[in-house]
């Protein structure tokens, strides 16, 4: 089955990546369904505790990620073993990144506004891996022809230029653009050309004595956030569940 998929559906050697991505996405979706049921008090599921300590699913996620990662390194790119370890790795990564916000804040922020970062990171990771699975190679190497690939100089120049575009986009406060620009260089180029977001390192360094540039940057950021913040939050709520209202959480702490 695996060899048939590699011959007819995906590029040779990419079956483990497909298995890992599928396991990653399914694990995240199933985990969110279970946690939302626990939150609502429905179904047979409940929080796992050991010795009075709440064991978050990031713990088994780390174990599975380590096992799957080392197993994948030790195995070949083909065969059942590679696919099996890829699935284990994908499951572990899904469990870990589902609680990315908890790791970032070192606090149980799963159902808070800060917890939205977990959903955003999972979606971003799945999109990037999907692009690689579709044939995109980081830093635009996939855009080089066979003759250019034979020249180390051409490869180094291409990688360096595209890396700089991504770095400039990041300096301008466009983190998503910079990350996607690593895979699709044109995206990073657009982020490099456009105005920096207010508060970004680029704006602090180069817009300090340019009030018109600061004003344009603030206005563009305001319009962009007003247009896209609402739809982005609704999609995050649909995927990961709506966070608890802050006043309700404040009352719970009293």
Structural topology:
Layout: H1 2-8, H2 15-40, E1 49-50, E2 53-54, H3 58-74, H4 80-98, H5 100-105, H6 116-133, H7 146-150, H8 152-171, H9 175-183, H10 185-193, H11 201-206, H12 211-240, H13 246-253
Could you describe the 3D structure shown?
- With 254 residues, the chain is mainly alpha-helical.
- The protein has helices spanning 2-8, 15-40, 58-74, 80-98, 100-105, 116-133, 146-150, 152-171, 175-183, 185-193, 201-206, 211-240, 246-253; strands spanning 49-50, 53-54.
- Strand 1 (49-50) and strand 2 (53-54) form a beta hairpin.
- The longest helix is centred in the last third of the chain and has 30 residues, at 211-240.
- The model is unreliable at 248-254 (pLDDT under 50).
Provide mean pLDDT, rounded: 84
Distance between the termini: 58 Å
CA radius of gyration is 22 Å
- The rough form would be described as flat
Low-pLDDT stretches are: 248-254
Helix content estimate: over 70%
What does the main sheet amount to? 2 strands, antiparallel
Structural class: mainly alpha
Can you write the helix and strand succession as a string? HHEEHHHHHHHHHHH
- Count helical runs: 13
Strand order within the widest beta sheet: 1-2
β-strand percent reads: under 5%
Question: How many extended strands?
Answer: 2
How would you sum up this structure in a few lines?
The protein has helices at 2-8, 15-40, 58-74, 80-98, 100-105, 116-133, 146-150, 152-171, 175-183, 185-193, 201-206, 211-240, 246-253; strands spanning 49-50, 53-54.
């Amino acid at each position: 089955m695996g060899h048939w998929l590699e011959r007819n559906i995906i590029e040779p050697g990419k079956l483990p990546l497909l298995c890992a991505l599928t396991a990653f996405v399914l694990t995240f979706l199933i985990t969110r369904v279970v946690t939302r049921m626990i939150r609502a008090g429905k179904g047979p599921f409940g929080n796992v505790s050991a010795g009075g300590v709440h064991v978050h699913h990031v713990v088994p996620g780390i174990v599975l990620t380590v096992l799957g990662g080392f197993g994948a390194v030790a195995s070949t790119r083909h065969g059942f073993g590679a696919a099996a370890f890829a699935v284990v790795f994908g499951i572990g990564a899904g469990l870990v990144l589902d609680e990315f916000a908890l790791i970032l804040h070192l606090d149980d922020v799963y159902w808070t506004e800060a917890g939205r970062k977990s959903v955003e990171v999972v979606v971003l990771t799945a999109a990037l891996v999907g692009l690689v699975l579709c044939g995109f190679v980081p830093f635009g190497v996939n855009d080089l022809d066979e003759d250019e690939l034979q020249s180390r100089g051409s490869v180094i120049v291409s990688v360096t230029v595209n890396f700089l575009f991504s770095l400039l986009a990041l300096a301008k406060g466009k983190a998503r653009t910079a990350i996607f620009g690593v895979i699709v260089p044109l995206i990073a180029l657009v982020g490099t050309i456009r105005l920096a977001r207010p508060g970004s390192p680029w704006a602090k360094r180069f817009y300090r004595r340019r009030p018109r540039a600061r004003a344009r940057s603030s206005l563009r950021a305001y319009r962009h956030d007003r247009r896209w913040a609402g739809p982005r939050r609704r999609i995050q709520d649909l995927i990961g569940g709506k966070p608890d209202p802050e006043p309700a959480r404040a009352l719970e702490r009293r």
